[in-house]
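Quick entry between incubations.
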Amino acid sequence: MALEAQDWAAVWLTLKLAATVTVLLLCVGTPLAWWLARTRSRLRGVVSALVAMPLVLPPTVLGFYLLVLMGPNGPVGGLTQALGLGLLPFTFQGLVLGSLIYSMPFVVQPIQNAIEAIGARPLEVAATLRARPWDSFWTVVVPLARPGFLTAAVLGFAHTVGEFGVVLMIGGNIPGQTRVVSVQIFDRVEAFEYAHAHWLAGSMVAFSFLVLLILYTVNPDARRRAA
Amino acid sequence: MSPTALELRVRHRLPGFELDVDLTLPARGVSVLFGHSGSGKTTLLRCVAGLERAASARIAVHGEVWQDEHGGFVPAWQRPLGYVFQEASLFAHLDVRRNLAYGMRRALGRADAGEIEAMAERFGIAALLARRPDKLSGGERQRVAIARALLTRPRLLLMDEPLSALDAARKQEILPYLERLHDALEIPVLYVTHQIEEAARLADHLVLMEQGRVRAVGPLEEALARVDLPLAQDHEAGVVLRARVEAHEPDWHLTRLGFAGGTLHVSQRALEAGAPVRVRVLARDVSVMLEDSAASSIQNRFACTVAGISAATDPAHALVSLEASGTRLFARVTRRAVTQLGLAPGMAVWAQVKAVALLD
Amino acid sequence: MKKLGILLVLAGLVAQAHADEVKVAVAANFAAPMQKIAQAFETASGHKAVVSVGSTGSIYAQIRNGAPFEVFLAADDETPAKLESEGAGVKGSRFTYAVGKLALWSATPGLVDAKGEVLRQGNFRKLAIANPKTAPYGAAGVEVMRKLGLADALAPRIVQGESIAQAWQFVSTGNAELGFVALSQIWQDGALKGGSAWIVPESDYTPIRQDAILLAKGEGKPAAQALMGFLKGDAARAVIQSYGYAH
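Done. Structure below.
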């Protein structure tokens, strides 16, 4: 095997980052998706556009603004310093925050689509059967939207694994902290270490294919819901 | 007058539509909200259920206030009601037994297997308890939905065109269950429909709605017998008569019914003599003769007085109101016949009834 | 109006037929001076220089995989040599167009002293460098820290940019208080553009020779030849020096 300790460290870090981001995104993204699916507020369009921005923006743009905002002179940096959290660039927490934003649409949209597909009726039925809103969320919405949640989790995870631009901009390439697989591959290529690069890059290709294969086999209408 | 159970004063504005209703309905029996689509009957039902929050309303059931003029609003999930929706509304991810238990557990704090099975038995779905909703027919699904609503022991049952999504055969499969319900249920039922046949078969009380307002309200027989209401113009227009079983004529396989204005023969039924029944007589099944004629094959004939003649929507037809000793009847005849027979109010005539439907 | 528009388009086509185009790949640290040189080159020769900027490693990979570049201005001297030996560059066309100078820089005025003592005092959180494995300026920065005997002490504070451009960005946004950058990035018209800097003595690190090479795709192309010549001329030299490169 042509992978060295630093490659494995990057792999492990990447999985840790993706898992953390996925869990957090499900927590943050679900209420947001719910709101987007149900609200008649005029803000809906604005919020939808903001959530979808990472789909169209080059990751470098996002990364650059994060670097500026989270820096000592940026508002986010000022806040984190005031809270005693220090500065976020070049830290694992900073990557988590960046990835949260970057992978947000991949989690919010499938959940939103699933909730929209369910419609208001099952919730009305649940209400006439004495289910409180919170109760009906867990006993009706979550089970009925399960394929959407599954798609969201898989895409959120996979997309975070595949992230490069944002990490490059705010990571600082610190081993064990911010040097994830995609950056490690870039370094290997830049340093003409093509054998290592091939192993890592090939694994990424295989990983992505496997994830999508599982997603579409287990959950055949995921493609439609993700769209 | 029976004790008032339902107090419904609802004002609600939707884009291009205004609901303005002030109704008090009796504590028992089925009140049918009848009207064309867009007349506001479903909106009214949703306001009663709390699924829609009317801009201004006072909704009280058995003295319990669910919404008042001062902004008081009990959310839907706190109202002890059962709601049966138009289309199948079972939870797709739960089997029949879990669907049935869902509301019961929340309303009563327990899901008693014995009670669920007894209810399933009553609705003929006991064999389906382990099935998923997508493995049920439309009629079975709707029976599960009704059973599920009743298991919560509601104090009011709301039914929003529960048969409209079903074909004729499925309707006939469910109507007997609803009729039995009608007899056994202690709680009031608000039943929305635009099918006059359903209304005639199930209603004790009829609320006729038109463009968000109540056009008429009263006991079913009275409402159906009013020529000034659009009900009289329906293709299925007709009256409901209260009658009693007089005797059986086993040689002819007939049962004789007596009502205030005469007698009617219907196909033999297993009913005790003296039992009260309701029969439906459609206007299109009644014809008018100037004198009785034993020469007719139609034997349900009786003497009447012409009470009035009114125009029908179809310009070829007229609606003749007949009075038979206090019982009101409609006959739909051609205007040509009215002229040729010289029909006029006050005239003594004979009514000939081609077909009679026994409702109970 | 329409006719005039067509005429203008035709005129444009005619003008292009006269002037050739040369596709140049430029290492990130030399992007700014190259813009100026390209303008001067266009005025002087009538040829147009189309400039692509990237890291030396990426450009190398692109050239090896068929990129249409005709001239390559690298950030080191190894990569052009490698390209030449691999046959992707024209033999004998290599020359050093600039010698890079390393600077320790902070966006905060007064933080960096004229002797780089700040590295010893350590009143900073992060020190940005370019990836030493891939960027010559990064390697030079590591060399300097070793020479000062600070390499191990500073290691935990180091953040790496993938290129010298990124190292500069980390410092300029304040996310790293200090960083080893190319003097060309902070120097214009013979003076520091902002912040504070220590221009590291050239004796403290291996000279950063930046070589240019005529690539196989540019062989025999007049515009490419012309640019190689122009880079050696006085006009280009003046620009290069004004950005803090030695020549």
